[in-house]
Amino acid sequence: MTRDSHTDDESTDDRRREQASSRLRTDGGTQAEGADDTTLDPWGSSTVSDYRNLFEEFGIEAFDEVLPEVPDPHYLMRRGVIFGHRDYRPVARAMREDDPFAVLSGFMPTGDPHIGHKLVFDEIIWHQRQGGDAYGLIADLEAHAARGLTWEEIDEHARDYILSLLALGFDPEAGTLYRQSENRELQDLAFELGAEARFAEFEGIYGFDGETDVSHMQSVVTQIADILYPQLDAPQPTVIPVGPDQDPHMRLARDVAARMRYFGVTEAYASFETDDEERALLAEAYKTLSEQHPGETIRCGDAATYLDNERDRDATDVDATTKDRVITMLREAGKEPLRPRVRFLDRNATEEAFEALIEAVDGEKRVYDEHIDAFELDHEAAAALAREVELAHGGYGFLPPSSIYHRFMTGLTGGKMSSSVPASHISLLDDPEDGYDKVRAATTGGRETAEEQRELGGKPDECPVYELYAYLLADDDDEFATEVYEECAGGERLCGGCKEQAAELMESFLEEHQDKREEWADRLDELDIDFDSDRAR
């Protein structure tokens, strides 16, 4: 590696280093050249033009918010490559408290595994090493139904994916590997889950229409079953590491998991049912009136009057229609006390399970035709009780599955990384010398001339080569990743030397990875997974 000295004064140098250091951890807002908008297509080759849009449009949370709760976080988490999550806190808590949890992700065997797939491999392996039950699956039914691959092609690619997962450190003795087509338990679960999925949802989420074949729709239900499969024997927090394009599957899986439950558990304040916005109004009214009249019984009619008066002062952000609806319900309830309670909603419970829950709720309670109100349980205890009764009466008791989302890697030629453009990506099966050559030929975020680079600094945030360091080549060495970033942004590092160093590291990585693949290739017979499908070709 060659380094060029600074041509700027020390104050400029310090300022650049400070700016570079503050930018090392990305915030989810980087624009990718040639990227799509935020339409998420699980079967496309989409990227995302602005990751921040996902927070607002789809309810994905920024991973930075949960990062302090994660013990010994993976470098992809620390560097902001994993930028978002859905409900990851139960998984983080399970890791901290040494409780059971699981990790699962799958691979559609449509081509060679490449360095983009390595992100998912690494995330599965890290969670396994943190104590999780780890599952790696081959989505061969999806590949056949959605992409039209032959079973012969699928068999070949499936073997390659599993070999790379093993070579990177997956422990097959402590984890589970399977193919969708060979897992009867999975297919039975998919059949049961299909009863809670509707074609209208498939239209809205995936854009399916009258031309969509039934096998493609069936593959979606199978993927929902994959996501919930680690909980088949017992409920446990489960994380699914994926790219953001797979988020439609996660949203649907969470919805279906909730519908499969015997009981829903919510907060309530009166006998009538409310949605989230309505409950927020009731909570606000109860809190204010309780503070104004300590020790007195707050009645629904009192809350109706309070909210009606607040309407003129515009004290809340709730729309007028919702407020009118709540006021009407409160007035109809009249003298009924307004009190916080936990509500058990009957979703799919058998009559025996519902009666068992009534018996299991201690303390003051009110029993209605389709729900039970408990006044001496908090939400966490109520949820645990509902799950216990459900499991005792033949239900699944699914916990909502969690997910984490990583950025798409930029193609080495700029724009998207595409398996159909060999120069844009590096396959884990590439000859190491070819990997070296691809990195040497890669687009960079450098300036037009070396002089401009020294004067203005490079643009590592727009550089596919820097991504290689941050995502792969620096491995767990944050100091090295920071050094590369700062030297580039500060003008010390020129593109030629930087690419040479990256190319050499990539060549070494591929050599080591393929040696480990060869070691595992001789041991595949030891695994409980078949790479020779007996399905019609």
Automatic annotation (TrEMBL):
It comes from Halorhabdus tiamatea SARL4B. This is Tryptophan--tRNA ligase. Residues 499-530 form a coiled coil. Belongs to the class-I aminoacyl-tRNA synthetase family. Its EC number is 6.1.1.2. Signal peptide: none annotated. A motif ('HIGH' region) lies at residues 109-117. GO terms for cellular component: cytoplasm. One of its GO terms (biological process) is tryptophanyl-tRNA aminoacylation. A motif ('KMSKS' region) lies at residues 416-420. It holds the Pfam family tRNA-synt_1b. It is found in: Cytoplasm.
